[in-house]
Each structure stands twice: as C-alpha cells, then as structure tokens.
C-alpha cells in the first residue's frame, strides 16, 4: 500500500481548455479518497493519470514517495476497477480472479491460495466455477474486486463502478465496498458524480469543477463548511437554498424577512453589499411543531406554502421567491455549473413528519440562523 500525491497536476488535450488545471491532492496511505464533480469536470482524466493511462502535461504524480510520471501502467502496481468490470465472459469466476496472477506467471499453488482467500473475503467461494454471464450485477462487481485484491496492489482505483446497477443494488454494493476497503486498509481513489457515494464512502472528498479543485475535505466539512457556492450547491439533497441577502449589523435581510445572525458571522459580511445567503432545507422547521422556548421571533418568518411533498418521516415544502436582478445572473450561472440540478426561484424546506402544513397555508417557519452561510456573489467564496 502507498500514499498518492498529486502535485500541481495539469492535463491539456491538444491546445484546448485544461481538462485538469493545477490540481494538488494528497491521498494518505490507506485512505479512501473520492473525486467528485459534474460531467466533464476532469475526474476520470485525473484517475487515468494516476493509473498511467493518460500522459501528464505538467506537475508530478507520486506513488509511495516515488515519481511515476513516466512509468508505464503495468509498472505502477495499481488495480483499476472499471464501470463495466471488464470481466472475461468465457472464463470462470476462479480464472477471472486468477487472471493477473497467471499473467505474472505465479505458480499454481500460489494462485490457488490467493484466489481462495480473495473469494472467501468477497463471499464468492460458492460461485468459483460459474461464468460472469450467470452472475448478478453485485457478484460481477465482487469478481472485479477480487481480481484487484489478489494482485497485492499499492492502491485501488475505481471509475464509477456502481453506475450500471439499479438503486437497491447500488446501495448494497456501496456498503460492501466501504466494508472491504476498511478491512483491507488499502489506499483507494474512487471517481463518481453521485454525491451520496461521495458522502458515504470517502474519508475525504475532492470536489472538482471544470478541471479546478474546489475543496478537499471530509464529507462533514463539505456539508457544514462549503468553501464556495459551487460546493454548497453540489453537496446536499435537496440542494442548499440560495437567496439574495443584505447584512446590516447582526441582521440579515432575506426576501421573506429579516433574521438575526451570530455576531461572528455578521462581522465577516459587513459592508459587502448584496450577498447570496445559503440555507440548507434541513435548517428550516415548521415553528408549530417545535418547543416554544426554541422559537424566537427573530428567527421566524411567515410565508404561503406553494407545494408540500410528504415522504413519511419528513416533508418538503416549497415557497416561491423572486431573486432581484443583481444576483440573478450569478444564480443562473451556478445552475449551469451544477448541471441544472437545482431550482433557484423557490425555497425548499424540509419539515418534520409531524408537521401538518399543507398547500396554500400561511405558515410560520423557523430558521436556524447559526447555520446560514453568506457568499460573495462575484467570487462565490463563502465569507462565513
Ligand atoms: P464524466 O463524468 O462525464 O466522465 P469527467 O468528470 O470524468 O466526466 P473527463 O472525462 O475527465 O471528465 O473529461 C474532462 C474534459 O476533458 C472534458 O471536457 C472532456 O471533453 C475532455 N476530454 C476527455 N478525454 C479527452 C480526449 N481523449 N481528448 C480530448 N478531450 C478529452
């Protein structure tokens, strides 16, 4: 096993816009790193440069403290698990797992020992004589991982390994990959565009946008302290609400009312003119289902609820608002950056399942003002 260090990595295809632009990320020995971002952000290119399938235009790629820029893929001793698993249909599970060992001319006894050990870890020992065509998606995935394990590779690299599976199996396989990675303690880099995979699997997550690293942090840090508007909008479902905001003293004026925010937050946003406030759906609540002593007038507002979606344990309420022209352009650009995943003209609020708010109600909504983020609309930077 080995640490991976990416130092100021640049990749240009032809003379176009860099697909990867000055990215530096350290992956510690045994760490699980996620590379995440919307389509085209450069995550696969970065992974392919680690493995050696793509030349590095500039910067240094270090594996186990050794520069590997010019090493051929086979000399890097990394195991890559592809989206389509790349299994050999005519070979049995046993021979698929054994494949890298056969290629390395290992003696039969060693092949047998390693294949049996890996298949036990992966609970494939009852299927060793079957062919991939007779396996479920999850089992095929495990065979692909078995082939990676037997090689005693320095690191595992995954390129969207679960994207061909249905939602249920994807959930199961996610847990399985996590358990296996922890048990083996092997350095892992995993590419996905799925933020649930990013948040649940990674020790740390690197968020990319158009080739540029936006933030490299633990999942909790990304959720609680996003560095900028892009990360804030990308992480979290339903996405963070973005609203025009003006700060005066420790009051913040939002389209639906004025709230009092903690002084340290307010201090960082003084005299900056119109800002963009970010509030997660979870940080609102129906004031009528809360303890009265938690609710103060300075943290509530009244609004007419447009639509309510009830999901059992919680409900989403939608409240339309109008963004002023000064921030409209910024929010439209953000939507584009996020692949149009979010709607920026309505507030989404996550309500406790006990809430009885219904469509058309004029409701009193509480906001957890300590959790408000304030962003600079021109740079996108999180000021708070
Ligand atoms: P996806 O999730 O869609 O696979 P990605 O984040 O993995 O996207 P990359 O595949 O790394 O993104 O692509 C990054 C950028 O580099 C894109 O603009 C893409 O069009 C470009 N690109 C990728 N491969 C090549 C290539 N072989 N030649 C030219 N441009 C390429």
Automatic annotation (TrEMBL):
Keywords: ATP-binding, Cell membrane, Membrane, Nucleotide-binding, Translocase, Transport. One of its GO terms (molecular function) is ATP binding. InterPro entries: AAA+_ATPase, ABC_transporter-like_ATP-bd, ABC_transporter-like_CS, ABC_transpr_MalK-like, ABC_transpr_MalK/UgpC-like, Mo/tungstate-bd_C_term_dom, NA-bd_OB-fold, OB_MalK-like. The keyword ATP-binding applies. The keyword Isomerase does not apply. SUPFAM superfamilies: MOP-like, P-loop containing nucleoside triphosphate hydrolases. Gene3D superfamilies: 2.40.50.100, Nucleic acid-binding proteins, P-loop containing nucleotide triphosphate hydrolases. Residues 4-235 form the ABC transporter domain. It comes from the Bacteria. GO terms for cellular component: ATP-binding cassette (ABC) transporter complex, substrate-binding subunit-containing. Pfam families: ABC_tran, OB_MalK. GO terms for biological process: carbohydrate transport. This is sn-glycerol-3-phosphate ABC transporter ATP-binding protein UgpC. The lineage of its organism: Bacteria, Bacillati, Actinomycetota, Actinomycetes, Propionibacteriales. The gene is ugpC.
């Amino acid at each position: 096993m080995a640490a991976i260090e990416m130092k100021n990595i640049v990749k240009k295809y032809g003379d176009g816009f860099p697909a990867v632009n000055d990215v530096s990320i350290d992956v510690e020995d045994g760490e699980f790193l996620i590379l995440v971002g919307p389509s085209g952000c450069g995550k696969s290119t970065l992974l392919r440069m680690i493995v050696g399938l793509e030349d590095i235009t500039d910067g240094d790629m270090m594996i186990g403290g050794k520069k590997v820029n010019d090493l051929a893929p086979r000399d890097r001793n990394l195991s890559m698990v592809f989206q389509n698993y790349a299994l050999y249909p005519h070979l049995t599970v046993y021979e698929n797992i054994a494949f890298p060992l056969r290629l390395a001319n290992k003696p039969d006894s060693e092949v047998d020992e390693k294949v049996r050990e890996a298949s036990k870890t992966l609970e494939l020992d009852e299927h060793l004589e079957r062919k991939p065509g007779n396996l479920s998606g999850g089992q095929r995935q495990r065979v692909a991982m078995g082939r990676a394990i037997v090689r005693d590779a320095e690191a595992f690299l995954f390129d969207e390994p679960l994207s061909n599976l249905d939602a249920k199996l994807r959930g199961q396989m996610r847990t399985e990959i996590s358990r296996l990675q922890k048990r083996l303690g092997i350095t892992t880099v995993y590419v996905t565009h799925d933020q649930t995979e990013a948040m649940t699997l990674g020790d740390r997550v690197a968020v990319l946008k158009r080739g540029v690293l936006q933030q490299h942090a633990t999942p909790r840090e990304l959720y609680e302290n996003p560095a900028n508007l892009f990360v804030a909008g990308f992480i979290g479902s339903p996405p963070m609400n973005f609203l025009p905001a003006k700060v005066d003293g420790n009051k913040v004026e939002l389209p639906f009312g004025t709230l009092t925010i903690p002084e340290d937050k307010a201090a960082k946003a003084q005299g900056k003119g119109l800002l963009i406030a970010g509030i997660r759906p979870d940080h609102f609540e129906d004031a009528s289902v809360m303890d009265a002593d938690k609710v103060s007038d300075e943290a509530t507002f009244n609004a007419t609820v447009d639509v309510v979606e009830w999901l059992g344990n919680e409900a989403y309420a939608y409240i339309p608002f109008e963004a002023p022209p000064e921030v409209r352009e910024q929010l439209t650009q953000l939507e584009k950056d996020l692949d149009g995943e979010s709607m920026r003209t309505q507030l989404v609020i996550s309500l406790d399942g006990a809430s009885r708010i219904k469509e058309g109600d004029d409701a009193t909504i509480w906001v957890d003002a300590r959790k408000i983020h304030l962003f600079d609309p021109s740079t996108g930077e999180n000021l708070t």
